[in-house]
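User: I'm putting together notes for a lab meeting next week and I want to include a structural view of one of the chains we've been expressing. I don't have a solved structure, so I'd like a prediction I can at least talk through. The sequence is below, exactly as it appears in our construct file.
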Amino acid sequence: MADLSRTARVDVLVEGYARLPHVAGTVSLVRDAGRVVVVDPGMVADRELILRPLRELGVAPEEVTDVVLSHHHLDHTLNVALFPVVPVHDFQSVIEGDVFTRRAADGVDLTPSVRLLATPGHTPQDVTTLVGTPDDVVALTHLWWTGEGPADDPYSPDRDELRRQRERVLELATLVVPGHGAPFRPGDATPR
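Assistant: Thanks for the context. Below is the predicted structure for the 192-residue chain, given as structure tokens.
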């Protein structure tokens, strides 16, 4: 995106997976302009799998300023309480402690390099976090479980909407961090 600054840093704290009965959501850290944002602090085998890489990057849980939830499945929300009471951003609101402020996520800039996009697809409530880094425009999203798909998301209530939102994100991102897999560079084989 031409109007997205390119000053942020993205680190994947936990690379997610879905190998039933074992499931872990991808957990990411975004830092920019004094904001320290954790995206999708969900299910992991042990909470230290989130906290250890955070410490290794020099970030204490108390330094987190925001949490973003891509959607409300437990595998992406379960560990929100690891962090202090900070703004938690979802598709329709910002929640801080017991204060609920309604606002649509689409187009919300957390910093000049970090933008939220409403991207209904995996669920009607999906949010993609778009991050401008010096090298890439990164999409932290559950529009894809992994780089391979699945092409037909079994949870998606509207396959046409999923396809539209995937196309929208692919027009913007040069790197995708999916909900349950390794980051990937989109290409012709990327499921639409």
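A couple of points you could mention at the meeting. The chain has a mean pLDDT of 96. Residues 9-177 form a domain with the Metallo-beta-lactamase; Chain A fold (CATH 3.60.15.10).

User: Perfect, that's what I needed.
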